[in-house]
Structure formats: structure tokens, C-alpha cells
Write a structure and sequence with these properties.
Aminopeptidase; Alpha-Beta Plaits; nine-stranded mixed sheet; 12 helices; 35% helix; binds zinc ion
């Protein structure tokens, strides 16, 4: 079968139309998981898929599966997934592009009367961002059997509203049983969220792995006091100590050029008052690196840094590791297929590692899988000015169609 050409204008229209739901004045998106806007965006995608004859399944976590049948009814489906939720002030493409490219795949197959052996199924995962309900990548983690539905339904947002009641309110509290053993392989297509593809003028990122990451919660206990009377000598200022940690963490990241990442993105100062010497600070350190040995080195450096700051400042420092997410390697055969599909579609490509986590991380180990990246402007993501071009969007969708059809014809 010749690969159908995707319809670039149709894809761009879908992307534009779906970004109405939760649009912010600055051109971004505020579409929290299981919000009214999330429901409207899902309704849009479901309507477009049913219009071309797809069937819809919704599981108890609201994961929404859009299925186009193949000729072999016993064959496992090829799954393409992403998310429609955003950060509170997020962009229009993180996640959303992956769903709309999947929809465009279904539409292209339909309008070209293409026949596949395997069913093709596009899934909208619930709550990838974790901005309203914790944890992130929740829907995919549920699908992977890491949580029960009851456990996740009772999770609350800052207003005390549960995920379960939110899903019911938008009509996405489903009861369909969908499990990993119904699927043969998994693809996820996403914006890069980094600057490499645009900078190098490359159309397609062939993603080989998602880098590992560790989170550490650090508590600093010093001594509060009146800022006007407490002498400078002998102060145990928790924030001044935290500043040394922030700076030291940056040094740890810089010592791993290109690939390593070290960030303090959360800081809580108590009492946080201009005329009080800060007695307590809580901060979170995040370390990322695709190689476990380097991640171990960075971890050792962090512990050494905390010891040094403690003895230098007299502030008591306690640290607790809260997350240890190993590097995830994608399936070599599928990586090769994506690379060959880019070439077959006339696109340039490069192999790369994902710095960010994705729903695909939850699917690893359940079935063969891989990811495809397209460029985004200036590498900006999780921001309202996140942007892509119509050409980039179309290129990615075309490679996705090619890769899925390759898998369809190669799979038993
Ligand atoms: Zn995403």
C-alpha cells in the first residue's frame, strides 16, 4: 500500500480549533485535567473521530480510546497516545499536537480508503501534566496497572474537588475495560520542548530514550530572629544557606555539559517576612541525566554539597529522596522504523534523548514503543508563547503515518 499523504491544512485547522478550549488572552492554554475545557477538547476530538466511523472507549480514569478497525479482528491494535491537558499557563502544542497528529492519522487513513491489518487506536491520556491532580502521567500509569481507579478518583485539587467527581462532571468517567495486552505497540509524537531540532534545521527527532531523574526534598533548620537586632555574626540564616545550595546545584549541572540538568525549582521560606531572619527553608533539587553512573555522581556531589553548607553555616540540613525515575530506553526496532520513515517521507532526522517525561514512560515494559519529536520555536514549552509551524506539524504527522503503516505490515 502506498502511504497516504496527510492533509496539512486539516491538521492545522484541528490544532487551531481545539486550542479554543481553555485559551488564554496571551495565546496560550489553561486547560487543567478533567476541567470543563478538558471535557470540551475531548468532545471535539471524539466528534471528529466518530464522524469518520471510529468507535470510542472510555476507561474508569477517563482515558479515551478512538479505534479504527483493521481487517484482522483478532490482531492487536497499534496505539498512538498523548494528552490534551495543559499547565495552568501552558502552550497549545505540548501534548495536544500528539493527539491531533493521531487524529490526522485516522482521518488520512479514512479519506484515502486505506486498509490496515491491525486496528489503529488513538488514546487521549488523562492528566499527563499533574498540574491539578497528582501524580503526573496519571492516566497512563493507571493503564499500566500502577494504581487502582478508586485510589486515583479520590485525589483532590487545591479546592478539594476529587478527580472522580471532575471526570463525572465532564462525562469522561468511563467503564470500558482497556488493558495493555490489547495492543501490539505504542507511538507518541510530541514537540521537542527543547531547542535542538530548530537550531539544527532538522525535521524529525528520533527519540531513543527518556533521561532518568531524581528529586530530593531538602529541609534547612536555622534560627529565626529580629533582623534589626540579631547580630550578623553567629546567625544561622536558613535562606542564606539555601542560596549556597542553589548555586552549588547549578555547578553540579554545569559539570555535566550538554546532557546533565540540575535545578532548584521550589523554595519555601519560613516565616518569609522582610524583617525576620529566615529560620526554615524547604527546597527541592531535581537532577537529570540519561546515564545512571553520571546521575550517581551528581547525587554524590549533592550530598557532599549539603554537608559542606551545613558545616559552613551551622544550619541543620536534612534530605529525603522523593523520586527515582530510571532512564527509559525505547524499542530498537521501532526506533529504526521511525528513522526509515523519516527518510522515506523525505525528511531529515536525528536521534535524540528526551529531557522531559512523557506518557510513554508509563507504557515502557508493556509493549514495544517509541517517540517522535518535531521542532518548537526557541525550544520554549510549558509557556503561553510555545509555538510550532504548520510545516513542522505536517512533517511529523506524515512520518507518524509512515511509521504506523510500516509496523502494521511488519507485525505478525
Ligand atoms: Zn506533554
Amino acid at each position: 500500500m502506498t502511504t497516504p499523504s496527510i492533509d496539512s491544512a486539516r491538521l492545522w485547522t484541528s490544532l487551531t480549533e481545539v486550542s479554543r478550549y481553555g485559551a488564554t488572552p496571551a495565546g496560550g492554554l489553561n486547560r487543567l485535567a478533567a476541567s470543563i475545557f478538558d471535557g470540551q477538547a475531548r468532545d471535539y476530538v471524539v466528534a471528529a473521530a466518530t464522524e469518520i466511523g471510529c468507535t470510542v472507549r472510555i476507561d474508569p480514569l477517563g482515558n479515551t480510546f478512538l479505534r479504527r478497525e483493521g481487517t484482522d479482528h483478532k490482531a492487536k491494535a497499534i496505539l498512538i497516545g498523548s494528552h490534551l491537558d495543559s499547565q495552568p499557563l501552558g502552550g497549545k502544542y505540548d501534548g495536544i499536537y500528539g493527539v491531533m497528529a493521531g487524529l490526522e492519522l485516522l482521518q488520512s487513513l479514512q479519506t484515502s480508503n486505506s486498509v490496515t491489518t491491525h486496528p489503529i487506536e488513538v488514546v487521549v491520556w488523562t492528566n499527563e501534566e499533574g498540574a491539578r491532580f497528582s501524580p503526573a502521567m496519571m492516566g497512563a500509569a493507571y493503564f499500566a496497572g500502577k494504581f487502582s481507579a478508586e485510589e486515583l478518583h479520590s485525589r483532590t485539587d487545591v479546592e478539594g474537588v476529587t478527580l472522580g467527581e471532575s471526570l463525572r462532571a465532564i462525562n469522561y468517567l468511563g467503564s470500558d475495560f482497556v488493558s495493555p495486552d490489547q495492543f501490539a505497540s505504542y507511538f507518541e509524537i510530541h514537540i521537542e520542548q527543547g531547542p535542538i531540532l530548530e537550531r539544527e534545521g532538522i525535521d524529525i527527532g528520533v527519540v531513543t530514550a527518556v533521561q532518568g531523574m531524581r528529586w530530593f526534598r531538602v529541609q534547612l533548620s536555622g534560627q529565626s530572629g529580629h533582623s534589626g537586632t540579631y547580630p550578623m555574626e553567629g546567625r544561622r540564616d536558613a535562606l542564606a544557606a539555601a542560596a549556597q545550595i542553589v548555586s552549588g546545584v547549578q555547578t553540579i549541572g554545569l559539570a555535566q555539559p550538554e546532557i546533565g540538568r540540575a535545578t532548584v525549582g521550589h523554595l519555601l521560606v519560613t516565616p518569609n517576612s522582610p524583617n525576620v531572619v529566615p529560620g526554615n527553608v524547604e527546597l527541592m533539587v531535581e537532577l537529570r541525566h540519561p546515564e545512571v553512573l553520571a546521575l550517581n555522581t551528581m547525587t554524590d556531589e549533592l550530598h557532599a554539597l549539603l554537608k559542606t553548607v551545613e558545616s559552613r553555616t551551622g544550619v541543620v540540613i536534612e534530605v529525603k529522596q522523593e523520586l527515582d525515575s530510571a532512564t527509559i530506553h525505547f524499542t530498537p526496532e521501532l526506533i529504526d522504523i521511525v528513522e526509515a520513515s523519516a527518510t522515506a517521507s523525505g525528511m531529515s532526522s536525528t536521534r535524540m534523548i528526551s529531557g522531559a517525561g512523557h506518557d510513554a514512560c508509563q507504557i515502557a515494559g508493556l509493549m514495544p514503543l517509541t517517540m517522535i519529536f518535531i521542532p518548537c520555536v526557541d525550544g520554549i514549552s510549558h509557556a503561553e508563547n510555545e509555538d510550532i509551524t504548520q510545516v513542522w506539524a505536517a512533517n511529523g504527522a506524515q512520518v507518524l503515518v509512515e511509521a504506523v503503516l510500516q509496523v502494521d505490515s511488519h507485525l505478525k
